[in-house]
From TrEMBL:
Bilayer-crossing regions: none
Recorded superkingdom: Bacteria
Protein name, per record: Endonuclease/exonuclease/phosphatase family protein
A GO term, aspect molecular function: hydrolase activity
Key words, A-Z: Endonuclease, Hydrolase, Nuclease
């Protein structure tokens, strides 16, 4: 099973259309089973095309480009909040497998989508080789945030998930690995396994090189994007891609690609 997560910083990038094409080409080439995306945006003023999706929804356009390349993906997106006063920003999942269940729910204290700290998680349960497996696209808050602390968001997330079903939490957790007693440890306190730590072969894992939006005055390298598993599984490889070394950069975050041995 091949998984990918990326905070795609959509419609905030220079050469955005070129980067969208690069992302589509990589997903097509690698044929990921599930892709989780964060900061998936659409203009508030754009034309509605399907359900909540508008014509310039970044993920919707990505799926169309994948279809043109010959890769068919199911797509689920929901809005978390309004960004930069003109975008509806959310999280999304793509999968090549039959979808058994779809869900989206707030994990923030706030449920006001006009508030930029409001957070929602999108989930899909798929039939992966006869096993019902769930995947959740996550873009959570910061540990030290007094209004929307990571701890309470993680508590709500775990409370909504069927813990009997194998599942993966994928995304931008805004909590660096290696800081003891904060968000990274808190996720693992619930019994989740960091697939990076389980991987037989891995690289640095760094997904953010320096200062970006939300991490002002933090110039250090950070590993804040993760794929967590609800059970200890065999991870063949974990690598950072779309980082200028393994494929061109397409966002202010790099992507994480994980190859999970079938169970």
């Amino acid at each position: 099973m091949k998984l990918l997560t990326l905070n795609c910083h959509s419609w905030q990038e220079a050469d955005q259309w070129k980067k969208l094409d690069i992302l589509a080409a990589v997903i097509h080439e690698q044929s990921y089973d599930v892709v989780a995306l964060q900061e998936v945006s659409q203009l508030i003023t754009a034309e509605m095309v399907k359900g909540k999706l508008k014509a310039n929804n970044f993920g919707f356009l990505l799926v169309q480009k994948l279809k043109e390349l010959g890769s068919m993906y199911d797509y689920e997106w929901d809005i978390s909040h309004i960004g930069y006063e003109c975008f509806e920003e959310g999280v999304a999942l793509l999968t090549k497998h039959p979808v058994l269940q779809r869900e989206s729910f707030f994990v923030s204290c706030s449920q006001d989508t006009s508030y930029w700290k409001t957070r929602k998680v999108v989930g899909m349960t798929v039939n992966y080789k006869g096993i019902s497996t769930a995947f959740y696209a996550c873009h959570l808050g910061w540990w030290q945030d007094e209004e929307e602390p990571f701890r309470s968001q993680m508590d709500r997330l775990v409370a909504r998930i069927n813990q009997e079903r194998p599942h993966f939490l994928m995304g931008d957790f805004n909590n660096p690995a290696g800081i003891a007693g904060e968000g990274y440890d808190y996720v693992q306190d619930f019994g989740y396994f960091d697939t990076y730590q389980l991987a037989k072969h891995k690289d640095s894992g760094v997904t953010v090189l320096g200062e970006i939006a939300g991490w002002e005055n933090h110039s250090d390298k950070k590993r804040i994007d993760f794929i967590f598993s609800s059970k200890k599984v065999e991870i063949l490889t974990s690598r950072v891609i779309l980082n200028g070394i393994n494929k061109p950069v397409v966002s202010d975050h790099f992507a994480i690609e994980v190859n999970v041995a079938d169970w």
